[in-house]
Fold this protein.
Amino acid sequence: MVERTPFLNFFTHVILFVGFVLCIAPFAVVAIAASHNLRDVNDVPMSLLPGSDFWLNIKTAWTTADLGPKLLNSFIMAAGVAAGKVIISALTAFSIVYFRYPGRTFIFWLIFVTLMLPLEVRIVPTYAVVANVLSPYQAILDVTGLSWLIEKVSGVQVSLSLGLLNSYSGLILPLIATATGTFLYRQFFLTVPDELTEAARMDGAGALRFFIDILLPLSRNNMAALGTIMFLWAWNQYLWPLLITTDQSHATAVTELKQLIPNVGGIPEWNIAMAGTLIVMLPPLIVVVLMQRWFVRGLIATEK
Amino acid sequence: MTIIKRGFAALAAGALSAALVMPAVAEPVKFDFWFGLSGDLARVVDTLCKNFNASQTDYEVVCTSQGNYDATLQNTIAAFRAGKQPAVVQVYDVGTATMMLSGAYKPADKLMEENGYKIDYADYFPGIARYYATSKGEMLSFPFNSSTPLMYWNKDAFAKIGKTEAPKTWEDVAADLKALKDAGYECPMAINISANESWQLMEQFSALHNQPIATKNNGYDGLDARLEVNKTKFVQYVTDLKKWYDAGLIKIKSKDLGQDMVQAFASGTCQVVLTSVGDHGTVGKTQKEGMNWDVAELPVYAGTERKNSLVGGASLWVLSGKSDAEYKGAAAFLNFIHDPKTALFWSTNTGYIPVTKSGFDYLKAQGFYDRAPFKGREVAIASLTASEPTEITRGVRLGNFTQIRAEFGTQMQAIFANKVSVQEGLDTLVKNGNAILDRFQQTYPGKTLP
Amino acid sequence: MEKRVTFSSWTIGILFAVPQLLLIFTFFYWPAGQAVYWSLTLQQPWGGGNIWVGLDNFRSILANADYWNSITASLVFAGISTGLAMFVGLVLAALTDRQLTGSRFYRVVLIWPYGIAAPALAMAFRFILAPEAGFMAVVNQVWPGFWDPGLDGTDAMASIIIAFSWKYVGYNFIFFLAAFQAIPRSLIEAAAMDGSGVVRRFWDIQFPLITPTIFFLLVINITESFQDSFGIVDIMTSGGPANATNLMVYKIYSDGFKGLDYSGAAAQSIILMVLIVVLTIFQFRFIERRVHYR
């Protein structure tokens, strides 16, 4: 834009800069803490001049927590959750906004209520489900007498069993089962002009066609935002991965990181814990940078 | 048809031969051990596990840190309910009552007997054994990481007020703190008043002074035990602490406030703290250059006949529902932990104390307590064994004790913020604590502690 | 809100929702259903047995004065931190959207707070907010006794509000920015040509167009301030001093997770759920009316 607004620009820069400092300050504290030796990091007040042990601490954290393969696991989990949410939520929101079948509002609320109870609160029963993901269906068959019926008729005893402990699906699927994304897409889809739908229908495009060719490209910004947030969220999940990965081969970086955090009665090695934190925070930050490329101005009316 | 039959026969033969070959290249039996330590302590446990695996070829223990004690217990319960529990799990001291009622364990003493290990249970320090044993004295779990609190005092500061010995009574402490204050020390003594400090302030104080925390011998004799700390000597103790706090002799130091007690002591900011022997190594490693300090037993009020202090830490439980092969491995593992040599390794690398007399003697014989960083830790054993445990210094066996500790923290904070008087605060602690105990009792109708 | 133009096929519509429905049934409703059952019983943690007690768990919770304090604290926390996090996020996103020099850089950095790992958050805020050692120590030197989150409940509440808002500024920023960026450039250009200034354009064009996002973030922030707060409380105050920051979810977490009182915790979760659902319905009924969807 060509207008000149020097005052406003000045304030914009000042405010953004202050925001920048506030955002970056805790990271700076962490980085400085990661550069101290054991005594200095526990000094009060901790010195804000960086110490000299940065690379040593990074190395110690890397090797003791064996972060290499753990970062890969974290990446698979976080990318899986982000992708799953972005796709499944889009499908659901499309169904809720663009169709008018009976029970539609009910389904919306059914999905929406999942926002209300965090995983931590229902972790014990959720674990039981993941240990045998088909157990709910088995129970339904049993209670309704269907399994009895099947056994009578075919002689096959129904016993459904599929364990997801120590697997990527077990890590990912329960984390996808919430409603944030659906709600976001709903909000966006409602703003999409009806004219577009009408035009698409006049061109003879079916629902699927409209969804893929028109709706999804329009949702690009929201998908990028949702994907980023979900990636960060999943990356930092702690309780769930800890519970279901007893096998080191599926452990994630954040669960390993927590093991660097000093115990009560242990040596307060905050320098190493913070060095580990820095390493573990790096990949999500890179993802943020990459996702930024998707943030582009709306196209609709600029294609003239 | 015959072809198929022959095929089957061949397959069966193949399977048979495979079965015959298997034992020759037998994989070690794997079993899980979940523990609740993190940081450097988790690394020590990992090394311990590696040592066990290297010591024999029949079993392999897979050790997984669950981060902290709460998460360990919680995750074990979740796994147990789904039938995926580990063979061995570390459960903290206050979880003992819950474990005993769970019906989810295999008694450790029976396990050892069945697998042919002879353990001399009299070898355990009574103060430690009784804490984890049933009221009849059976060891259902094996004490693992153990500690007890000590008074840490700054010799340099005390020298300034002409003292070379640590104060032994609270009366002396009061006088010394005053003198330290007058000598210009900003923070003569540091305490914290969060939930976890229930251990130092309430539980240990009560044991040393032979005062009950709850009826029914602190809960050992039944689930209908109820708190009674609002009418014991503990009331006077809190009153004094509050008085000293108001006079500026005591400062509150906690992690939330930027500096916890141990840091405050190690940096020379505060001159006296009461904390676990487990922090002995931390103070040594993070202390101000050249600072002279030492540890002593916790003070008691003048005229008190000192009793044993209580153990803190955790014990190892073997869970039910595992295979015989895994139990054999678990028994071997517990036996390995029990070995005095393991005790030496454990105490050298952590601040925890040996749990058996033979372990302690072995450490002494190795000159452990004469060497620089470990010197002084024998005071912990002296404190634990100050007397034969009485009916109420065996320990505390109350249900949902974590919640009672949380209530302790809440009421102490209310008292120190002048929201309520000492007596009111402790009355509320007893009232709310009893509601928790009530609830626990109702959850286990008709059950009794073993 | 309803679309005027929709697709007619019921089956295809329902099919689109099936994956999500399967997931939430298996991993949410089934386990949550057990929690409902627990709330009506006294549950032995190890699964040894349970006793049907009907609504007793609810009665004893609602008769407890501490619980009502916890509700009040949660509402205060939710109100202030949502307001703070959304306002700051909105301002930062609006300014970044002006695309002056450096905006690409800000766009990356301002999201970081949401990506911070919990231990780092604790460490950093411990440093910044500690009364005797950190940044606030300076303030305390000017006004002695001004800041004491260890014993003063209000200060402790302020600490967790700051930490939570800080984290969610990043969250709100990214969605606000996405919304701003989705506004067609031509709309703004047209308005600029009509001579309306930057501030004017913001209120007349941009703000109305992002109301769906504002509504989305309002609901999510309020919900998350109930749910995602327990980690911060656990790290910073443990619910203290004297229960001043014992928020509802933290209480559920500590009663259930630490205290193994599954039944009490389940009953509390259900009360919490009902409370959030009521708040949400309220928002849908009264606030969504002001949202411009097109």
Observations:
- Chain A touches chain C through 119 residues (CB under 8 Å).
